[in-house]
Every structure is written in C-alpha cells, then in structure tokens.
Amino acid sequence: MNGFLIALFIIIIIIILLLILYINLYNKINESIIRIEEAESRIDNNLRDKYDLLNRSISLIRNKIDLPQDSFKEIIKLRARKISNFDLDRVLVKSYNEFLSIYEANSKVRESDEIFKVSRQLEIINEELLTLRNYYNANITNYNKMIKKFPTNIVANIKKYKERTFYDLKDMTDEDYEDFKL
Predict the structure, then answer these.
(1) Residue of 2, 150, 151 lying closest to 10 (CA atoms)
(2) Please, are residues 103 and 109 in contact by the beta-carbon 8 Å criterion?
(3) With 146 labelled, which of 15, 119, 120, 154 sits at a CA distance of 20 to 30 A?
(4) Cβ pair 64, 58 in contact under 8 A
(5) Span 117-161, pLDDT tens digits
C-alpha cells in the first residue's frame, strides 16, 4: 500500500509538472501571436492612411496638372475591390512610386504646399511601415521556430497552429520574378 501511494504521488507530481510546462509553452506561443496581431493591426492602419493620402494626392495633382488617363489606375481600381493587406501594400508601393515620379518631374506639383504636406506624411508612413514590417517578420520568425521546435511544436500541434508567411511584399502567384531577388 505504501509503494502504491508513493507511485500515485509521483504520477500526480509528473502530471502537474507537465501541465505547468504545457501552460508555459502555450503562453509563450500566444505572446508571439499577440505581437504579430498587434503589428498586423498597426500595418493595417498605416496602409489605410497611405491609401487615403494617395487618393487625396490624385485630386490635388489633377488640380495642378493634366495627368494621363492611365495615371494611378491601380489605386483607383482598389476603390471597388477587397484585397489582402499584402496585395494592398504592393499596389500602394507602386502608386507611391508613381506619385514620387510625378512629384519630382513637375515644378507646379512641387510648389503646392498641400502636396508637399502629403508627400511628407507619406514618407513618415513609409518609414513606420518599414519598421512595422521588420517587427512583424521578426515575430513571425520566432513564432515559426516555436511551431517547428521541440517541445513547443507539441503544443502547436495540439492547438493546430500553422506556420505564417512573412511580410516581404513577395507574391508567389504573379509573374513578377523581380520581387524574389536576393
């Protein structure tokens, strides 16, 4: 009887230790998920602000100069579509580059105080987006490592966590192979 109680006590201690380990690993993974979701939220807000500023800049530029019909066509198409933040970011980068080329090429546009303010706000947003992408990717790296490495992979399999993709402006579904240059 005495041996039975000792064995039962040891089993209970092991179960408690395993439970504490599981909770600790689960919390570690969830902390990473929270950081990722926070970065996603902040990226989303910045992308919306960038989209609004670029849309505003189109009308401001059109008031100063005559733009070709196909100018800013991708951002104008966005008004009627729902796309992911990854795709939105790609379109906004192209539209921002188009904005910069028009801004730099036209003195009438550069002389406008409103357009100057928009360009400065866009620069600030781009800097913050760069920082947020780096923060997001660093947390994705940690999260993906936890999902693959023992013992956190056990918790990840139990909770059915999947690997997440990096925020790197790459699109594997398009024909643009230039975005995969190292």
Answers:
(1) 2
(2) yes
(3) 15
(4) no
(5) 999 999 999 999 999 999 999 999 999 999 999 999 999 999 999
